[in-house]
Each structure stands twice: as structure tokens, then as C-alpha cells.
Design a protein that fits this description.
The complex is a heterodimer of chains A (about 140) and B (about 500). Chain A has about 140 residues and is α+β, with helices and mostly antiparallel strands. Chain A is built from five helices and six strands. In chain A, strand 3 and strand 4 form a beta hairpin. Chain A starts with a helix and ends with a helix. Chain B folds into three domains: about 230 residues, FAD/NAD(P)-binding domain; about 120 residues, 3-Layer(bba) Sandwich (FAD/NAD(P)-binding domain); about 120 residues, no CATH class. Classes of the chains: A alpha+beta (about 140), B alpha/beta (about 500).
């Protein structure tokens, strides 16, 4: 898919809501596009060398110890925790049908976020929501 | 006068058909023949070689063959240093390339590469129906794939397409359809004292820039992304060192300019081109006036009507999405070999892709694919070597140090050993790493090499035990890339301890 088309696609994603068109084109340029077939693993629980993934098309399951816990869809992202902490992912991410993602290797995530404060803030908001959900679930 | 041998493989039904006679097709047909799999090979070309019958345009390969290594050129260890020879079992057919190179460079010239492939085909006796162009594809009621060709109709339940990724691609930029593509470069002297705009900052763009350095007045290389260099990515991602000279020329303010900008339009105005560019990051627009524009904008796989048959393709290169064994993820029975294997991504650890786009990578894929096809579809049982428990650790260390499949296909192909209570310890050979870690199978271990994009490569062991998730164990690297040291033996022993302890107590079968 052309850069402009992908940049338009991600315009509707919360993570990139504050970006101008040229900034979104830059995001598309920095990330790599990857595709996965049905049931193909995108990230593997306990394996090093992950990345930050953003779902463009399709869906993926968050699978922990073989049990599906949640579903990721277009606009969702995953892999950020393992990138930020420098640790292996704690879940498998498995494609449900054909899946298309944008990917940034973990080694490039820090410099990318530092150069993109708007995305960093949105990512932080996303993590805050996850903490809130977890806290509610625990209480 | 000797009677000409009739063309092999007349139209008809075959158990398997391979399309293509480039290195991928040649390697696959050789391996299938060795395994006794009856098949036909069709090629639109007149002789072996595929794209190397024409390209690279500056007539020298990017893949090296190092003549002096301390290893016999017919040995398996030598393959690590010889990226260009196809693989064979017979000694006379192994390590063909150093024998055809004139010693002026360890990168073979294009004619040397072509000669090496012709020699391989002659020595191994592989049979190809040349001059037979695949044109259409359909499925019949019985499930056979039906290939319409220039010689008539062929049928087979399984077809492997090894047709390369060499069809010129031009992105939909206004005016770009009218400028020459990489393969349409004129002779270099016609660029003397001219201003040349090259669209694309991959190897093909830098190859052209390198070739035009002594001729062009000014060279501008432009694409949205900054140029990556292989010496920085520690992988084949990025511009190879041989073509970096234009980059140095640019940073030292010579006649080369490198722009990070998208191309909005190419317009011919009289005898000059006006190229409109825009830098997305800085939102800076520039219109550049030049005498020539060259589209080094990549290539696609010439898959003809396969997408209409249901073969899912993705990305700019229109690569088919493939399983770890290189079968179409959407149409069973259609497989791929050669550079198209890039569509089977593998683990992509640290974001680093496989080397399936290059001979040194896909030649091993072809051998693994041949075995998979033979076993899965033709009932061939290939030999698996039983091992003693005390062999395992030194064997894995030696594979990490010398195994060419591991060196050339990092985090993609692995050497697998099964350690099973009933079958004992068995050398299962080379397998896609993704199949070992993602599919069910007997207990065992796989050794691979891995790059993380900044350090030297290091070995990694994956351990699969029934009822537990596959675990990875990173081994230490070594400055001299010697992975047969005490620290490696200890690390492998610790990783395999739960599997090998029971085996050690059993007598050798």
C-alpha cells in the first residue's frame, strides 16, 4: 500500500490522532509493514527480539499459556510493554484471519518515541487506561 | 550431425511442476530429483540463470564468493563463505563458483554468475523445458492446477513457482510511467555531464549512482526514507558497502545529493525534467530540474493470474503470503521457491528479515522445501540419523560455528534434534525455525544463529518439551565467532538438561 494511503488509514487511530499528514507519512515511513496468515504467531511469549506493532487490518488474539484473553483490532497496538521494559512479551499474539500490521523493532522504539512526544503522550494514555482497567478488575 | 534431443516434459499431467530456471528453480529441481520426486520444470528462458542472464546492470554481483577460507571448496563449511554456488551432494557439483571466477574480485561478475549456474545445470544434469512460457493458471474440477503455456496445457496437483522478483515496479507517481526503470539504463557515456535524478535509495539506486559517478555532473538520490546501510543494520537490510561511495560523496559535499523526500510528480518540460519533491518531516517542497530521471523503485513478483485464483499477495513487491514451508497461505498446492520466499517472513526477531531474497538464503529454503514436498506429498521417507546423548552438545556447538544454513538464514532456519523417550535422539536436520517453535512436535532442541541489529551474531537454543511453552536460551557471542567453547557447551548443557538427563541414563540405540 502506498505511503499516502497508509497515512490516511492511520489517521483514524488514537495513537496518531494529534499528527499532521506529513507527520503520519513519516510514521508510515519509519515503521515496516508486515502481514500474517490465520493462526500465525506475531509475537511469542517469552521470546526476545520483539517490537511495537500497530494493527492496520484484521484482528489478533492475545493468548497467554494457550488461552485467548482478548482480541486486538485495527488501531490497537501491542508489544509496547516488552519494548519499554526490555523484556520478552508475556503473551503470544496470534493472527485471527489475515492480519496486517505496522512494526517498529524494539531497538528503535525509544528514539522514535522521544522524537514524537505526541505519540508518546497518547501511548502513555493507553497504558494508563490499561492500569485503570486492571485496578478495577482487582478491586 | 548429432540429432537434437527432443525437449523434455511435453504438455500433460505431472505429479509436480516447477516454473522457473533461475537459481531457485535449479536448486529445487536438483533437490527433488535427488529425493526421487517425479516432476517437470518449465522455463520461458532459453538457458539457466534467471535474472542473472541480464542483471545487475553494472555486471557484478552483490554476493561474494571467498576463494581462500581454509576449507575445501566442496565442503559444507565452505558454503558459509561462498554465497553464490548452488548446493549439491556430488563433490564435482559443489562449490562451482570459485572455479569460474577470474580472481579480480570476490564478487563474481554477472557473466561469471551466469556461467556458474550453467555449469551447475550441466554437471548435475537437471532437465528443464526451456522456451516454455507459463501464461495462465486455473484449477480443474479434480483439484489439479492447470497451467496454460506457450507449449500447451500442463496439469499437476502441486506447482512451485520460482519466477523471481524482477518485474519492474513503478509507484503511482504522476509522470513516473514515462521514465526509464533500473533495467532500462542507457550506456553510461550517454550520461556524461548530465544531471541525473534517481528515485529510490535501495541497492539498485545506489548501484546506478555508483556506476554514474565518473560520468554524471550531478546525481540526486531521493526517496522518503533515509538511506540505511548494511554495515549499520548488521544485516542485508540497507545499502551494501560496495555501493556506499555515492553516500560518502554526498556527505563530503561532492556532486551527489541525497534527499529524504517523497516524489510528487515528474514532468518533462522541453528537454529537461522537473521533479517535484516534498520532505514529509519538515513539510519542505522542492522542484528539481534535471536532464535524466531513473526509477530505481523496486521490483515485483510476476505472478500473472495467481491472485485471481485466490493467492493472497501483499506489499509493494506483490509477494504471496506463505506458510513457513513456502506454500501459499490461501491456496493449498501452490508453493514458491527462490527470491519469492521473502513472503514467508519467519520470526523477524529484532525486525531483521531472512536472507530469502538472496541466493545464499533461498538455496537452503529450496532444499528444505524439497524434503517437505517429498515427505508430505510423495511418501518419501528421508533418513534421520540417530545420535548418542554425548554427541548432542558438541554437535550443536559445531553447527553454530560451521552450519551454513544457520549462518545464512539467521533466526529463520535451524538445526533440529528430537529427544524422544521412544525414538531416542535423532538428528532431524534443517527446518524452518518457526515450525519448530510454533507447531506441536516431539521434545527436542533447535539451534540457530541470531542477529540483534547491533552486536555480533550469537547462537540461540530453543527447547521444546511436551506440555510446556518452547523456551529460548541465548548463548554468549564470541569476538572470533568461535562457538565451540566451554561457555557454549555449558550453556547448551544447562538448556538441554531437562531433556538430556533421562536420555543419558538410557543405553545408545
Amino acid at each position: 500500500m502506498a505511503v499516502g494511503e497508509l497515512a490516511d488509514t492511520i489517521a483514524g487511530f488514537a495513537l496518531f490522532a494529534d499528527l499532521t499528514t506529513p507527520q503520519r507519512e513519516n510514521v508510515v515511513d519509519v515503521f515496516t509493514e508486515q502481514w500474517f496468515a490465520d493462526e500465525e504467531k506475531v509475537l511469542r511469549q517469552g521470546f526476545s527480539g520483539s517490537g511495537l506493532y500497530i494493527v492496520i487490518d484484521g484482528a489478533a488474539a492475545i493468548r497467554i499459556d494457550g488461552v485467548d484473553r482478548a482480541t486486538l483490532r485495527a488501531g490497537d497496538y501491542f508489544g509496547e510493554i516488552s519494548c519499554l521494559l526490555g523484556e520478552a512479551p508475556t503473551a503470544d499474539i496470534v493472527a485471527i484471519g489475515a492480519l496486517r500490521c505496522l512494526v517498529l523493532p524494539s531497538t528503535q522504539v525509544e528514539s522514535f518515541l522521544k522524537a514524537s512526544p505526541n505519540i508518546m503522550f497518547r501511548l502513555l494514555q493507553g497504558e494508563a487506561r490499561k492500569v485503570r482497567t486492571t485496578t478495577k478488575w482487582l478491586s | 550431425m548429432a540429432e537434437l534431443e527432443p525437449k523434455p516434459f511435453p504438455p500433460g499431467r505431472y505429479p509436480l511442476i516447477v516454473v522457473g530456471s533461475g537459481p531457485g528453480g535449479l536448486q529445487l529441481t536438483y533437490c527433488l530429483t535427488r529425493l526421487g520426486v517425479d516432476h517437470a520444470v518449465l522455463s520461458q528462458d532459453d538457458a539457466p540463470g534467471g535474472m542473472f542472464r541480464r542483471w545487475p546492470v553494472f555486471q557484478r554481483m552483490l554476493s561474494w564468493t571467498k576463494p581462500y577460507t581454509g576449507f575445501d571448496r566442496s565442503s559444507r563449511e565452505y558454503e558459509r563463505y561462498d554465497w553464490n554456488s548452488l548446493l549439491a551432494e556430488e563433490e564435482s557439483c559443489r562449490g562451482v563458483m570459485p572455479g569460474v571466477m577470474d580472481g579480480t574480485s570476490y564478487f563474481p561478475s554477472r557473466p561469471e554468475m551466469e556461467r556458474g549456474l550453467v555449469l551447475f545445470a550441466e554437471r548435475t544434469g537437471v532437465r528443464v523445458r526451456y522456451g516454455c512460457r507459463w501464461e495462465t493458471t486455473r484449477k480443474d474440477a479434480g483439484g489439479d492446477l492447470v497451467l496454460g503455456t506457450s507449449d500447451g496445457e500442463y496439469r499437476a496437483p502441486i506447482v512451485v513457482f520460482a519466477v523471481g522478483v524482477a518485474q519492474p515496479f513503478r509507484p503511482p507517481i504522476p509522470g513516473l510511467a514515462d521514465v526509464p526503470h533500473y533495467g532500462e539504463l542507457r550506456s553510461v557515456e550517454t550520461y556524461a555531464d548530465r544531471r541525473v535524478f534517481i528515485i529510490g535509495k535501495q541497492n539498485s539506486g545506489f548501484e546506478i549512482a555508483s556506476g554514474l559517478l565518473p560520468w554524471a555532473r550531478q546525481i540526486i538520490l531521493a526517496s522518503p526514507s533515509p538511506a540505511k546501510l548494511s554495515v549499520n543494520t548488521h544485516s542485508l537490510v540497507g545499502v551494501r558497502a560496495r555501493y556506499v561511495q555515492p553516500y560518502e560523496d554526498s556527505v563530503l559535499a561532492g556532486g551527489v545529493i541525497i534527499l529524504d523526500a517523497s516524489i510528487e510528480e515528474v514532468k518533462l518540460a522541453g528537454t529537461v525534467y522537473q521533479v517535484s519533491t516534498r520532505n514529509a518531516r519538515e513539510n519542505l517542497s522542492l522542484v528539481v530540474e534535471v536532464d535524466d530521471v531513473i526509477a530505481a523503485t523496486g521490483f515485483t513478483a510476476p505472478l500473472r493470474d495467481l491472485p485471481e485464483l485466490g493467492v493472497r499477495i501483499v506489499g509493494q513487491s506483490r509477494l504471496p503470503v506463505q506458510t513457513p514451508f513456502w506454500e501459499s497461505a490461501s491456496v493449498p498446492g501452490i508453493y514458491f521457491a527462490g527470491t519469492i520466499n521473502q513472503g514467508s517472513q519467519g520470526m523477524m526477531k529484532h525486525g531483521i528479515p531472512s536472507n530469502s531474497g538472496a541466493v545464499q538464503g533461498y538455496r537452503y529454503n529450496a532444499r528444505v522445501l524439497a524434503r517437505h514436498l517429498a515427505e508430505a506429498h510423495f511418501g518419501v521417507k528421508t533418513a534421520r540419523r540417530p545420535m548418542a546423548a554425548d554427541e548432542v552438545i558438541p554437535f550443536m556447538c559445531a553447527e553454530a560455528r560451521y552450519g551454513p544454513e544457520l549462518w545464512h538464514q539467521r533466526s529463520y532456519l535451524a538445526h533440529v534434534i528430537s529427544i524422544d523417550a521412544d525414538r531416542g535422539i535423532v538428528d532431524e536436520g534443517i527446518s524452518p525455525l518457526a515450525t519448530f517453535v510454533d507447531l506441536e512436535g516431539p521434545d527436542g532442541a533447535a539451534i540457530a544463529l541470531e542477529s540483534n541489529g547491533h552486536d555480533d551474531l550469537y547462537p540461540i537454543v530453543y527447547v521444546r518439551r511436551h506440555g510446556a511453552a518452547v523456551k529460548e536460551h541465548l548463548l554468549p557471542g564470541h569476538p572470533l565467532l568461535d562457538f565451540e567453547r566451554d561457555e557454549h557447551r555449558s550453556a547448551i548443557a544447562a538448556a538441554l538438561e531437562p531433556l538430556l538427563s533421562p536420555s543419558l541414563s538410557r543405553p545408545r540405540s
